[in-house]
Structure formats: structure tokens, C-alpha cells
Amino acid sequence: MIKLDPNRTYPHETESRTIVRFQDCDPLQHLNNAKYLDYYFNAREDQVATQYNFSPLQLFREYKTSWVVYQHQIAYVRPAMVSEWIRIVSRIIYYDEDTMITEYYMTDDSRRQLKNVLWMTSKYVSVVTGKRIPHHPEVMAFLDAISMKNIDFHNLNFNDRIRQIKEQLAQEGSEGVND
């Protein structure tokens, strides 16, 4: 069962740090385009386990449901390089009755250089029937507790979002210089 602590405020954005592995790079020493998804999915799995005490296995066992990837939208802004330390940020930017959109972005270790942005759309499905179903009330409450509240997804363009993230990183970088 998904258990939310009513006395706790959950982070709406999670972040982790990792290194780009040689085995995941192309001959130019760039992270292979397909490997970005692996890095994002692995980071998110770790992030939700540590920040929310949640595992997708809980959905499978308790509700006989899962989220399945329906669509990706990805932008390769700058390459992540072999042996480079990177930061991966993830957050839920939209959800409704049966859909969840997770935004991921990757930066250099100092959070100054945007490398990649991904929007992943997932659908909530019954693992028994393989068909899309509405989120259970506990799942909706969980999504409400962890999702970003200040993003107007329906009026958001992917390329505009990339610019917003770049501006946010630049602002955070300039604030760090003045501290």
C-alpha cells in the first residue's frame, strides 16, 4: 500500500549524481543516445525509492498495475562525455486519470550546462488485462503529493521548456557566484 506521511512535505524534484561510463559511450566518447534513457530510468528508480519510499514493484504486487511508457520527447542539447560526473533531475510535471508525464534533465556536475531534456509519457495499465485503467485513489494522492504544482503543462511547448530550464540553471549559477 502506498503510505503518505501526512506530516511530511515531499520533494517535487529529485536529483542524483552519477558518472558517465566508458561502456555507455560511442567512439566520439559521447554518451550513446539510447543510453540516456537507461541513465534516466535508473536514476528515477533510485530517487523515488530514497525520497518517497516507493517502488513500482508495489503497484505490481498490490494493485496488479504498472505504468508503461507511451511516448518520449527528447532533446540532445550538449553531449555527456565519458568519465564526466553528471546530475540527473526528475519530476512529475503532469498527471491525470491514467497518464503521468515525467520530466528529466541532465546537467554537468556544477549544474551550469544543460545536456539533455526528456519528457516521458506513461500510461497506467492493469497487468492482468494489459489495458489502460484509471489511477487508484492512493496513486492519485501520491502523484498529487510529489508532482510539480507550478507548471502549466497544457500551455507548455517542449522547446520553450528547454529554454526555461537553461534560464533557471543560469540564474542558479549566477546566484552561486554572488554567495
UniProtKB/TrEMBL annotation:
A molecular function (GO) term: hydrolase activity
Record keyword Chloroplast present: no
Superkingdom assignment: Bacteria
SUPFAM superfamilies noted in UniProt: Thioesterase/thiol ester dehydrase-isomerase
Keyword NAD: no
Keywords assigned: Hydrolase
InterPro entries: HotDog_dom_sf (IPR029069)
CDD domains tied to this protein: 4HBT
UniProt protein name: Acyl-CoA thioester hydrolase
Organism: Larkinella arboricola
